[in-house]
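re the bet — no i am not wrong, look at it urself. input seq straight from the record:
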Amino acid sequence: MIVEPPLLLARTAEIESPETQATLQNTGIPARFWAGYKEFCGAPEEVQEAVLKLHAPTDGDFGQAISTSTTKRPSLVQQMCEGKTEEEAQQMVSAEKLVMDMVFSAMQHNEVECALPAEDSSGADVDIGVGLFEILSRINHSCAPNAVWIGAGEDGSRALRTIAPVVRPGR
């Protein structure tokens, strides 16, 4: 069994917050991507590097949405560009847009729902958000799976448990 805490956890409370909804109004950016990006911005550098190394083909899918969202976030953009020349400021905004696209793409291609088992006997899981996992995101999909996801902890940790022998191809 493999148990791994998420690199990033976009919590449901943040995803559903009125602030997030207002920021993203008419941008086309899913709230869970925005919440993940906010977590990314506050994460240590080694976590940011690990997120950016996840499989995430970027082809500018979110380009227009990102342009809209950065204009709706003047305080962050102003803070980034304070004391910079116009050219430096443009370069910083362009770099932020590229990183946003990479994080959104990582979320789109690698996010995993994180939930806790219900404390009552209802059997319904309690959704805590979506997470990005460094190891677990590299596991291939199968229509005949030999492993299952298991919710593991309040920090969003997920566990992967084998349910059938794991055989390497060619053996």
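see?? Residues 86-110 form the longest helix (25 residues). told u. also The mean pLDDT is 77. so pay up
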